[in-house]
Amino acid sequence: MPEILTMILQIDQTLGLWVEQYGAWIYLILFLIIFAETGLVVFPFLPGDSLLFIAGAFGASGMLDPVALGALLFVAAVLGNTVNYYIGRYIGPKVFTTESRFLDRKALVKTQAFYAKHGGKTLVMSRFLPVFRTFAPFVAGVGSMNQALFQLYNTLGAFLWIVGLITAGYFFGNVPIIKDHLNTIVLIGIGAAAVPVAGGLIWKLVRRSAEKQ
């Protein structure tokens, strides 16, 4: 199990080997990884961003079908968030007061605060923020967010995330400099996604401070 987990975490180096070994089964494997990261709160560390980008690059090389892959992983992302949402509704607020070695409660509390500030938009923005994207649908379920509204943001976020990163990988994933520095580029991308969120929070704090004066 630890060896498999290591291979998943190093997906940028191992995906080619997996494609050769498992053939068409690779589609199911990638489906399960995306589903686990978005659907189960104990797997926030899975490499969804790099997986999608690298998969797009393999689509450009002809080793994977990018259209079939995108459609399948879109379903995985939507279904994962939906399962996570219902787990949150079922478990309820008690998870915030219960210690568990399988659950990062600090990250969960941060996501709850983020969700309280941004509401449904959190589900779209969090798709591009590791850890947050795992906890956001869970928090939405705990807060009993309207189901129809949840699915609207869930579907939109999944589409932008899956199509955006697979397309980026398809066109740029085989460029040597990008391929050799993928982890750095992913971190830069995450930072770029976080900047508007941080800017919005700072603007709200400044505005509130000005209103109090």
The low-pLDDT segments are 198-206
Order of helices and strands: HHHHHHHHHHH
SS element count, helices: 11
Query: Strand portion, in percent?
Result: under 5%
Q: Ends: how far apart?
A: 57 Å
Class by alpha and beta content: mainly alpha
Number of strands: 0
Main sheet, how many strands, which sense, barrel? none
Rounded to the nearest angstrom, the radius of gyration is 18 Å
Average per-residue pLDDT, rounded, comes to 78
* Helical amount: over 70%
- Please give the oligomerization state of what you see: single chain
Tell me, what's the shape?
globular
Can you describe this structure?
The protein has 213 residues and is mainly α. Helices cover 78% and strands 0% of the residues. It has eleven helices and no strands. The chain has helices at residues 2-9, 11-22, 25-39, 48-60, 66-91, 105-118, 121-125, 132-142, 147-172, 176-180, 182-212. The longest helix has 31 residues, at 182-212. The radius of gyration is 18 Å and the shape is globular. The protein starts with a helix and ends with a helix. Residues 198-206 have low confidence and may be disordered.
